[in-house]
Amino acid sequence: MRALGELAPRFRLVLGPQFSRSSKLKLRLPFRRSRRAILISGVFLIVFSYPLLEILGSTTGNYDGELFSLVSVLFTIFWSLGWSVGVFILALVFLALSFGRETLEINEDNVRLLVGLPGIGFGIDYGVDLIRNLKTQSPDAATGTGWRGDHLAFEFAGDKIGFGSAITATRAGEILAAMKTMLPAHADPLPELKFPELETSASNEKYASLTGKDSAQREAESTALSTGHLKPRSKLSALALMIANLIPLLGVLVWDWRIGDIMLLYWAESAVIGFYNLLKIQRVAGWGIVFFGPFFIGHYGGFMVGHLLFIYGFFGDNFSNSNDVSVAQLLLDFQGLAPALLGFFISHGVSYFTNFLGRREYLGIEVAAQMGQPYRLSSSCM
User: How many whole angstroms from its chain centre is CA 8?
Assistant: First the structure.
């Protein structure tokens, strides 16, 4: 499916009304509920919720104004935030199995299948141009459709997509008749899709009549993206980065910054990298940021507070003569580094807008790869 590029199915998170006003066809499909699945998901929800509630309850009253206790509390909060994503997903699964519904919507250019609750739904958009062979389907445990019972299906680019569950013959006939009037191309032969060597280029030639671009045009775009000639604004990003890195040099030569100050500054730059990476994840994942965002903040936040304790543990003498460092001292240390930190914030902001958005570096990036990117950058900073 990934090889289809622009024609590939699109994941959708729908908040609010599950049907759009411009829909050509709106259907609520029969949805079979499994008591066993509901029970299992409920047990998993309880099991995963218990440590989250236990940890959150244990942090009450642990903060005493010192750095170590602050790091402990922050680490617990970030861990809880990351863990809560799994609990939230399990809660949605339990609620969807218990009270959810499946819907089908046909728009001008796609068929949308959603499963969810009133106000929130998860589903996939399938382009109408590649949908063929609407039919009823018998359950088949070997293909994972046994739970559906008698249901409906269509083929999308050669893949079989099932929808609905426990549908009677009468109801199935009504749904198919309504869909066929909205999808007149469903009976036409599917034109052959051509995909040259997938491993040699991310811009593969798609079927020309469906994409409107020939292979030469796609190859030109791919070359422009890879060589940086699509939007020649990256020089601004390089200039901003150079200026931002001159400020720490001034700090050492003019303001008498020590090694501890420099280490703390580049720790703070890692936080800036994390902030802009959250924006990048949103651009790559879209509505998926609802899940990926909290998980990234929790995981990366725990990584950051661990490094902060490491810096003060090894370079604490640079900041304070006492063994304990207060939060007030921490804020005072950051205040002295404010000019350089502002420079880094502006520099990474320029890079985000000119490179990631302007030169479309987000094209072809997987969410998992984007989430892991700041760890490599932060390691180079540290």
Answer: 17
